[in-house]
Amino acid sequence: MDDFSSPNFKSFFDVPGSPANRIEPGKRSLSSMSPSIVVDRDGDVRMVLGASGGTRITTAVALVIMRHLWFGESIKQAVDASRFHHQLLPDEFSYEFGILSQVVQGIEKLGHKAVRNRNRGSIVCAIARLGGVLFANADYRKGGDVLGLD
């Protein structure tokens, strides 16, 4: 039920309730779920990924896609990399251990409150296809593993 909001209550992820997401008959909750299939210009699947973790899901999925496709990191590097997040409310930039201190200081110089995230944040699992070969990674933040078949 945490996907819905109730007046005067914050969600498990410390997000204030929104009137647009109140519990009402026949209503579906708003969700951060963003299972993604990324295709190239020829329509061939390059990546399939998804995540858990409430309001941090969208940021985590976007960061993994960018790190893999734009910056050329392996799917393991992209999923395992330190992450950051800002969701407007609360008004703070949260970041994981491993984000460069220069980045955090730069964010603070811009007037943002930076808070080191002490929980595991969002958990991403991803599969990438490179040259007809599939590569996968299960986020170390939660445990689990990936298997392959020949």
From TrEMBL:
InterPro entries: GGT_peptidase, GGT_ssub_C, Ntn_hydrolases_N. It comes from Timema poppense. This is Uncharacterized protein. Gene3D superfamilies: 3.60.20.40. PANTHER family: GAMMA GLUTAMYL TRANSPEPTIDASE, RE13973P. It holds the Pfam family G_glu_transpept. GO terms for cellular component: plasma membrane. GO terms for biological process: glutathione catabolic process. It comes from the Eukaryota. GO terms for molecular function: glutathione hydrolase activity. L-glutamate binds at D3, S31, S32, G54.
